[in-house]
């Protein structure tokens, strides 16, 4: 008896990810979930250098500023609730020190610029088509930083606006890295603060826009994480307590489906070795001085050395 309707997926022939790939992950909190998997398995990656970005215009702004190597100054930040903030970045960058905030922003811009030139794959997870425009400057922001909502206008980005933004992102990146491959996906997290109907409309705009730019011949692809969550995992046991975010089981499941499509068979063997070492490093012995544990530690070091001799960028 088959108790699931599974989305048919097959391995991608080109642009597969291996341990020589450099992967940039941008977008909503779901990109953080997948990014943690890349981190665990020790792939070369850069994840949300400006923090979580929910809508495509915020991602486009980051890419534009990174390509142009923008230098952030006092004019780009503001003071509110005893901290300095930047409308381009997530609140995790907010800082009590004006100097430290600017240093962090500019360091991230430089590292993103360099990584974009070397990236093999850019994975973009779009979360919402709703965006906030700061009325005083008439510009869209990545984060409102708890500034009173009356100072913003909330707007639903049209399919055309999103399409143009995605095309701009790809054009900008390929201007300095023509061989890069893009993987687009839509976050399965529902933004019910926007309202149930409005959230559905938002996701529809994102999906429609992405499919306007998907073209495998140009190395632009779609991965159906949203559809997997909505269809294959259509049960609340796959959600966290808020009934909105995928839980660990769901994240692991979608990661396995991603691996099925995007990770080469040879790379999967290396992933198993990394997993064994990670589990060994997390092991807590009853007696750390015992002969058995010392033998275990020695064998673990040998496994690490063997792996790192072939892939020196891997650091545990």
UniProtKB/TrEMBL annotation:
EC number: 3.1.-.-
Gene Ontology MF: a single term: hydrolase activity
Source organism of this protein record: Psychroserpens luteus
UniProt-listed SUPFAM superfamilies: SGNH hydrolase (SSF52266)
Any matching Pfam family: GSCFA
Gene3D superfamilies for the chain: SGNH hydrolase (3.40.50.1110)
Residue ranges occupied by any GSCFA domain in the UniProt entry: 22-258
Protein name: GSCFA domain-containing protein
Record keywords: Hydrolase
């Amino acid at each position: 008896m088959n108790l699931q309707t599974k989305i048919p997926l097959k391995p991608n022939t080109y642009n597969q990810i291996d341990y020589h790939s450099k992967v940039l992950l941008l977008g909503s909190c779901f990109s953080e979930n997948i990014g943690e998997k890349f981190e665990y398995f020790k792939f070369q990656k850069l994840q949300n250098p400006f923090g979580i970005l929910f809508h495509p215009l915020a991602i486009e702004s980051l890419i534009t500023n990174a390509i142009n190597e923008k230098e952030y100054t006092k004019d780009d930040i503001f003071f509110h609730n005893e901290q300095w903030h930047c409308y381009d970045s997530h609140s995790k960058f907010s800082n009590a020190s004006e100097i430290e905030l600017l240093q962090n922003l500019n360091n991230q811009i430089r590292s993103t610029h360099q990584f974009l030139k070397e990236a093999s794959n850019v994975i973009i997870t779009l979360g919402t088509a709703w965006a906030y425009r700061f009325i005083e400057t008439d510009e869209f922001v990545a984060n409102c930083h708890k500034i009173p909502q009356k100072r913003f206008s909330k707007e639903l980005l049209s399919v055309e606006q999103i399409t143009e933004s995605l095309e701009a992102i790809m054009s900008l990146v390929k201007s300095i890295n023509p061989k890069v491959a893009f993987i687009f996906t839509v976050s399965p997290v529902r933004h019910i603060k926007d309202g149930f109907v409005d959230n559905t409309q938002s996701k529809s705009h994102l999906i429609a826009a992405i499919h306007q730019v998907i073209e495998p011949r140009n190395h632009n692809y779609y991965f159906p994480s949203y559809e997997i969550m909505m269809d294959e995992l259509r049960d609340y046991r796959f959600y966290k307590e808020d009934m909105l975010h995928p839980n660990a089981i769901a994240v692991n499941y979608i990661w396995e489906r991603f691996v099925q499509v995007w990770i080469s068979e040879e790379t999967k063997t290396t992933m198993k070795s990394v997993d064994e070492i990670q589990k060994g490093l997390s092991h807590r012995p009853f007696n750390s001085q015992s002969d058995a544990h010392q033998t275990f530690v020695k064998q673990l070091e040998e496994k690490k050395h063997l792996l790192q001799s072939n892939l020196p960028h891997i650091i545990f």
